[in-house]
Amino acid sequence: MDKLNKIFSFDIKLFFGVLFLMAIGLLAIYSVSFENPGFNNFKRQVLFVILALIIFGIITRINYGIWENYAGVFYFLGIVLMVLVLFFGEAKHGTVGWLGGFNYHLQPVEIIKVAFILIVARYFSKLKPTDKRLRHIFISGAYCLLPVFLALRQPDFGSAAVIVGIWLIILLIWGIKKRQAIFLVIGAFFISLLSWLILLQPYQKERVYTFLNPGSDPSKSGYHVIQSITAIGSGGIYGKGLGYGSQSQLHFLPEAHTDFIYSVIGEELGFIGVAILLMGFAFLFWGIYRIARKSIDNFGRFIVAGALGLFFIQFAVNIGMNIGIFPITGLPLPFVSYGGSSLLTGLFLLGIVFNIDFVSRKLEGYLENENF
Questions:
Q1: Average pLDDT over residues 274-287
Q2: Which of 35, 126, 240, 272 lies 20 to 30 Å from 148 when distance is taken between CA atoms?
Q3: Are the C-beta atoms of 310 and 168 separated by less than 8 Å?
Q4: Contact assessment for residue 271 and residue 237, using Cβ atoms and an 8 Å cutoff
Q5: Where does the chain show beta strands of DSSP type E?
């Protein structure tokens, strides 16, 4: 295995773990594509996987230090795309979040998530370890507030929450003081209140009400959650088998290939399938955490921490909304749900993480040889 790591320049075991998650996603998408003429969703996802792996392979070969120079450009490009989508974007399910045509669309919010990680990692990595002034929270908060505001304008509450979550995680890694943390909590309360009164759309508020009481409107606002929980519960231990899930195959379960793909896996592969999926994610998160601990500089450490935050938050919220413990937000299950933008940007970011690991291991080996 060590020889393979040297050949591919990254942790091959962790890479196989990512391939495993994508394979489960392809199986589930294939299963719910039986009623789709030509298996179009499945074929498109296979294309996305191939393209994402090519991008991943290229990024792992680029020294991650270069992203420190281009983080600002990347962030600016992401903001421009977020603005353009408000004027020229395509609306789906009440959200204007896609640019493009000819049946291929780009979701700029996925780009800005990665760009935000890079720009905030660069900002905090340039600070002295003893410099914990409040102004740095305000400046980094401004980097956070702009994409959050644009995401809420789409409106995409889920992605806005993910960006805020990434910012908070990086603040914790940086070392926020208790007084500053209290200030943030108070500020977050008032911003949340303001968002509820002004920015959130009626259907988004309805999702929160439904989350609190799914049975209050089972035929409309509570329909998604009830069908999702029913699908997971009906899978039992072993599941009904791929292609034999009644909730997904008979279209009782909406957005089965994207938002509720976890429910498809629970219904058709059962508790065993879900347990294997969760173990795959646990392996992924542990591997990224280990890379963060071994990072040789703060820039790399902040990037890896941001990547771990991004993947974990989306994982937790997606599964949470599938089992009724979080409101429905439309966030994909990383590397599993159907969609090109999320998969391409996810593997792009993971390529940077793997390069950080490679550089850290290479330097660590060099220092050991020098000490010897």
A1: 96
A2: 126
A3: no
A4: yes
A5: 90-92, 95-101, 104-106
